[in-house]
Amino acid sequence: MRSVLLLSAILFCLVSFASKASDPPFWASSSISGDTLFFIQEGGQQRAAAFLLFVPKSMPELRSATGEVHYAPGTDFVWRPGSRRIELPAGSRIPFKRRADMYPAKDSPNSIPRASDRIGRSLLFGGGHFFHDLQIVASYKTQERWTGAIPRNKRKLLQKTIERCLISVVIR
Questions:
Q1: C-alpha dist (Å) from residue 161 to 7, 134, 152, 169
Q2: How far is the C-alpha of 86 from the C-alpha of 159, rounded, in Å?
Q3: pLDDT in tens, 67-89
Q4: 38: helix, coil or strand?
Q5: Which candidate, 98, 39, 26, places its Cα nearest to that of 65?
Q6: Do residues 35 and 52 touch, judged by C-beta distance below 8 A?
Q7: What is the pLDDT of residues 23-63, one digit of tens each?
């Protein structure tokens, strides 16, 4: 139990100090950056697709999750104004998976057993950069506003954890 609490505190510290205080949260901004996409080609569909959180006002910018690759509209992806959907044309450099790839055969590489396995398939699984390298990050401006739940600040409930984070940062 103690190791779980320690791990939770370490993760809290990393997240707290890694995020930029200057970046407003997505629910309070019309500039979206870091909208993560994972492209899936559904059975019967010719193109893989993913959906943005909001409808962009203009062409979104897509990059690899590492930020190293910038994807070209029209060549690597297709977006139609007024839509959240982004599709991949033939020859796109953007990685994707077919729906069937998400459920590999039992004991296949990069698979993990499913809790309810009636079809003899596992779930696609991979540690490290496996999924990270399959994701794309979108940046765009939107007129839409978030209508879902907004997290409340609970710092007072984690005061001792925050103090320990601050102490560990000062000690380094």
A1: 11, 34, 17, 12
A2: 42
A3: 999 999 999 999 999 999 999 99
A4: strand
A5: 39
A6: yes
A7: 688 888 889 988 999 999 998 899 999 999 999 999 999 99
